[in-house]
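Regression check, zinc ion case 613:
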Amino acid sequence: MRTELHSMEEAKQLLQKYYGYPDFREGQRKIVASVLSGVDTLGIMPTGGGKSICYQIPALLLPGLTLVISPLISLMKDQVDALLAAGVSAAYINSTLSGKEVNERIRAAKRGELKLLYVAPERLELDWFREEMKELTISMLAVDEAHCVSQWGHDFRTSYLAITPFVADLPRRPIVAAFTATATPEVMDDMTGLLKLKDPSVFVTGLGRDNLAMSVLRGENKREFVLNYAHTHGSQPGIVYAATRKDVDDLYERLRESGVPTGRYHAGLPDQEREENQEAFLYDDIRVMVATNAFGMGIDKSNVRYVIHYNMPKNMEAYVQEAGRAGRDGEPSECILLFSAQDIMTQKFLIEQNPQDEVRKHNEYRKLQQMIEYCYSTKCLRWGMLDYFGEEHDHSLCGICSNCRDERELVDVTTDAQIIFSCIHRMRERFGVALVSSVLKGSQNKKVLQYGFEQLSTYGMMRRRTEKEISELINVLIAEGYLSLSEGQYPVVKLAPLAIEVLKSKQQVMLRAPEPSQTAATGSSSTKRKGRNYDDGPSAVNETVFEQLRLIRRDLAEKERVPSYIIFNDATLREMSVVCPTSETDMLRIKGVGEVKFRKYGVPFLEFFQNME
Ligand code: ADP
Ligand code: ZN
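Current build output:
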């Protein structure tokens, strides 16, 4: 095996040559180095983190073939198209091909003409296919979306279990590298265990992508918010996720009525319509996609500028995966979660609807609770996310999430907190948020009277507030770690050690001024937040030039029948519009312009700049 140092230098050269990027991202460098030193590797990276490069570059350096296990046909095709556009020899084998085509590709692999071969996991269950693979020199097996091997994950695929016996059966064991965006401990254990990774190096990186401005907005009039947002971001591609088909249909109609080119996607639509809508979105024929969570896996569109969650998703894994579809090209993008308490009910209902054993159900409730805490948290949302996934981070604020941008004053709510904590204590820490709120409100409801809670000294001590306001405050105190919730369908609030300190007056509680509750009339919580300051910088992007470059790209994309980002992504066009390269050398210095791509697609862009002078 070559020395790692030597290979990393070569790896960097290939990155420049084929992808036009001057350097690896931090996480990519570590993963590539690990793979090149021959070690099994588990790479956890969010969507858009740049996973594919982590195995594609080693594939170019290792002898023989890299076999990529990929779960989705559309994903495979996109990846192979992108590789071919960059000048890398790659192919895929899946059920869309005829037997003859499959054989041709296997023969090409045998002749050593392919560096990467993408296959669906189901292939590995076929005897004849396994036999064919034994005749190849397979240096690496890259498992994409590796969380599919775990029953704990949200996309379990039985055929992923065929990977390990397949590897064991090969005459020479390849390096096994597994990649996913899901990083919970159970799933990580399954990936290393079920894929039988040998003393793997594990890298969790890049979850906090600094081009994504995360927001959680509570108390918005959601529908108006989406309509307004889509209008003010008229020319930009975005995804709106809603929990139910009904909401998807409703939003879709309204957006279309208001003149926004919109598509929709959910499991209730005929296959063909779904496929057409997806294509239209990929090719920028429509701007906004309204969808349930059925949409997205395998969507390799890099210029999505925003992802709005119309409802809170069921857990952080799902959220990060869906929100991560924004800004894969590294350009500033927004992820907005519109939260309402009703979302909690919906998610609980969905858990109850889904027949599953008690252990899993319990697990889902626990994850839901963590998601809720994220929504109520007042600390930097990026920290919240990184802490959840166990990624190390320095404690500098991201500065662009809705909490970092929250300029409302900190107010001392110690007295309110003490009242709440003492009420919970008097109720013997045996009830949920709703009943505690009723008691504090001084409600006469049946349950309150049944337990004799109207006798408590804290009964009615917060009667000037609505029950909703009280329970919101309790939820914030939970998210801030003063209170804890038991797990399960009917969680019970308990005092955390921090609350005891507060009760003893050893600790103050400072929170942002409570948000005004939803006012249907204005439809917008008038919370005070700093605007995004991305645009304040000395950005010299010339919008007219940028738009013209997009038109050139669109023409090329139509001619070649590939999605436009395969040609060059938005980040690349933006850099061009700033630099205005008029020679081949200058053009090759733009990030995203590799040698092959320049030869294939570069000329019209170059001519544009030459004529501009
Ligand atoms: P993933 O598969 O993890 O979702 P991709 O491999 O599609 O992510 O990469 C996401 C985006 O980041 C792509 O537009 C890709 O070209 C870009 N990218 C990846 N690596 C680099 C890098 N080293 N420098 C600049 N851009 C990169
Ligand atoms: Zn932040």
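Comparison notes: The mean pLDDT is 88. The CA atoms of residues 423 and 458 lie 6 Å apart. No diff flagged against the previous build.
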